[in-house]
């Protein structure tokens, strides 16, 4: 980690620190590896909506994948072309839909018949035609934590294939929406590429179903979900984008004029972000010692929310290791960053880095316990 602790020794903790060189190297890789096959990449803004980060990602020519009206607005403010903005989400409000229509965004990813009807009505009022992709639930298991799997029939996301005849019927009577694509997203933090192969095979079957009804859409959106290495970030600071895109190249059947789109969030930004925190107290426990730090679930909720693992580094101590529960100050038992973790002997005042916190970290922060929101610093 390229962090100069001296430079920040008098800065109020906790704070986020982003390594923008690493982010740029990551973006270069994604760009090169996706360009090889003519694939389009939209950045999933929900992973990290910092203005600096959005602008940098935009400067590499990527589109934006948004899940709220405010994300659509933030993307446009950061300079993303509206023709590269996609708007997904199972519960878009009327105002959010109108915002997307006003900006003539590339596509609405639609998740139900009632949503198609509302979109048709609002587009009609504005004398526009909304471009839509149907988010289809492919019923593929992503082998990830059950809170972040989204492609199963039991999840709230997407349209199931057994409803599809009704959807096509509905579309016939909706002149202000135009079907341009099919959209899939099976979950997040997927590290086994076999899951993506499974998705390709299923999408090929689904496309056959549409071909049989004389429908060939222009765009296939394969979603995001590529995972990163949380336990040993240094080993894989940049995810293996070459192998990821290769799977789709090898297994996805694409018609001559179809374009293929991806919506990567975590894989682009997770490794460039770190939560820097100071140790307040060491408290002796029965099995382990508690290192009580000044960051908590209000700054990084992933361990509490998804049982997520983050590597923790003591940036100050070079002592022999001992075992610690690293916990925050919030009044919740789930407010911890690690249990029984080996760290160099740790004292009050030591700086710790909680690694791989660039995705779903700062964006999920809250003011619970009336905490002040942590600010961000950048490597340049
Ligand atoms: C969250 C989300 C993504 C991005 O997921 P990552 O795991 O961060 O790549 C992409 N598409 C949709 C529809 C999402 O909800």
What is the CATH topology of the largest domain?
TIM Barrel
Determine the number of helices (DSSP H or I, runs of at least 4 residues).
Answer: 10
Number of domains: 2
Bound molecules: pyridoxal-5'-phosphate
Enumerate the spans where pLDDT stays under 50 for 5 or more consecutive residues: none
What is the molecular shape?
elongated
CATH homology superfamily of the largest domain:
Alanine racemase
What structural class do the secondary elements suggest?
Answer: alpha/beta
Q: How widely separated are the two ends? A: 15 Å
The helical percent reads 25-40%
Walk me through this protein's architecture.
It contains 10 helices and 16 strands. The chain is α/β, with parallel strands linked by helices. The protein folds into 2 domains: 5-15 and 271-378, Beta Barrel (Lyase, Ornithine Decarboxylase, Chain A, domain 1), CATH 2.40.37; 20-269, TIM Barrel, CATH 3.20.20.10. The strands form 2 sheets. Strands 1, 10, 11, 12, 13, 14, 15 and 16 form an 8-stranded mixed beta sheet that branches. Strands 2-3-4-5-6-7-8-9 form an 8-stranded parallel barrel. 43% of the residues are buried. The chain binds pyridoxal-5'-phosphate.
